[in-house]
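hey m, so remember when u said the tokens were messed up on ur end? i reran from scratch. heres the input so u can diff it against urs
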Amino acid sequence: METMLKLETLPAPTLLAAREAVAARLLARPTVVLASLIALSTVTRTVVAWLHQTPRYFPDEYIYAALGRSLAHGHYEIRGHLAHFPAILEPLVAAPIWRFFSTGTAYQLVQAQNALAASLVAIPIFGLGRWLGLSRGYSYLCAAYGLVIPELALASNNIADLVAYPLVLAALAMGVRALDAPSPKRQLGFLAFATLATLARTQYFVLVPAYILAALLLERGRMFRRHKVAAFALIPVSIAIAVAVLGFYSGVLSTTHLNGQFFHWLGLQSFLLTVEAGVAIVPGAVIALVRPAHRREAVFALFGGAFIVFLFCESAVYAANSDHFKERYLFALMPLVPLAYGLYLKRGRPHRYAVVALALAIVVAVSRLPLSAYAISTLRTDSELLYGVSWLERELGYGTAALVIALLATAGGACAVWIAFKGDRMFALTAAILVALAATIGAVKVDLGYTRTARALLPSNLTWIDAASKGPVTVVATPYSSRAFVFFALYWNTSITREVALDRAVPSDNFSAPDLRIGRDGRMLNTTGDLLIDRTVASASFWNASVIAHETGLTLWHPHGAPRIQTLVVGQYADDWLNESARIRAWPRHSQPKERGAAVAFTLSLPRDWPRTAHMKIGEAAFAINPGSRREIVCWNAAGPLDILSTSRDVLLDGANRPLTVQLRKLAQTATPAGRAGESCAATPLRRGSSLRRQAATGQKASAAARAPHRALLQAH
């Protein structure tokens, strides 16, 4: 305070000079500047992350949370089975949080941990800049750029990308030093950071082959003698890759093809990342990597360039298989662009006409490949940049947004050419920072909108299963379901310790989820404790279980003894409609020896204003259900459990894009009709309730969305 008072009493010119001197002294202290950048980034991203109220990136977020909880209790398991999942670092770091805090608090602390981890990237970026001989101020800008790229919006999510991010850049920083002046200490540093980066995110194993390739090109025959310590990094990385390929990523080899789709995505992802970088700094960065001037630049170009190529090829494999822009794999490359651009500026902006050619090629690509076309559907799933573009489309409209992005990209190309000849040297990087910041803001807005929508659909008590269950819970995955609510249940409720798949339904992830086994007496043979059944497109009733809770399409049953299922309809929505292919099953009550078979009675009906007659085939029997009518049907198997299919080609889609045929109601166990043998169905004139033995419990009532009037459907058709 005394110093400030003294400054205020100085004359204006002297005061300005004094303030500039103070600022210069502060900028000359990297510790202060980097600590300030890290603190600001951490606080800002933590505040934003805490507005993100629930996970949305499944199954990844559930996997990392489950592993963190398991490690906190001394295991490495998911749902009771050893997890062959090599990305152990994030769960290990988060394990103490999951061990000592409630699920809700732990979720927020993990978000803060991600924000801090991502912000630490400023240190290796600044170190790389100074090692390359870039000015202190420019290196600060590079560090700031690494803190505002759009993918850092993922700090809100419980995934490993943000923990891996600073480790990748640290491995690159240590690697270039070890390649430039090999020493055991530097090589050990690279080995440590490369191993940690691979254990955080397996895809970063390409750091090691990139280092080996760069060393071979630099040292030739002396490579193994001068870099033998770093070569040991092949051992832990190879182990991690073996675990990945034999475990969670076992399907990668069979789905990897170097076909047209691979090369399509290799080029497309290069284009999209160029636009994300702001265009203006990309041509100069490419020139610096292709034509290095001296050994340090050659080391950076060889190691960084090999890493860029390997990571692009790796991500193109996944992109070709999923049709997603895999920005999550590539965003660690973004800080390398301004660093390489700094080398271009340092060397006096050489090869100007090559810059013109590259800028022109980018502008042509922008005109032929409008970015807005990729910010739709699943293409944007792994890209925060495309989420930001979708926000711009929502604000301005599709056409206007596409025009704005094309004009900005064109301006970036023009800026690259202008700077190559005589423009302001720092303008392009400043513009790139502003582009990244704008994309980040858009991505955050879209993310928060999604999470608010998801939270509104979830129960007020996210741990409702833990609160209601009387012990461990087995979740039953059912066919046709979207699995969204199952993911949320798995994440928030630690009492779910097992998952089984009904009728070969798609389970939550690649970990243990055996097929549900049901005996001839209806006994569930491989479940434990209470049962959580997805009611979205299936309904069930039990002989010896009662409903203890239900929320968001899920029903929690508590069995009294070993659970014995009574009836099961797969392909029936919560509001009683059947889809185009439903499976109706029933099991006998074996406590009554005379009943060896099983039979059910139910009613099929259509609303009065339904536009068409539904022709149903149930088993081998055919039925026609007219609008406004109903048919009472009985199906039986005189010799054992009933298992019969219901199909129809008379299908209409509702507003939620559900295929609907008829409504099935009043499903109940009944006696096998006298004189009937085998398995079949028939219409019956039985009066309501005349032969019902037991009314089947149908679980949860239809959700509000499922009860939407079908008149909107009639208008659509």
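this time it looks ok to me. Residues 1-5, 686-717 have pLDDT under 50 and may be disordered. if urs says something different then somethings off w ur setup not the seq
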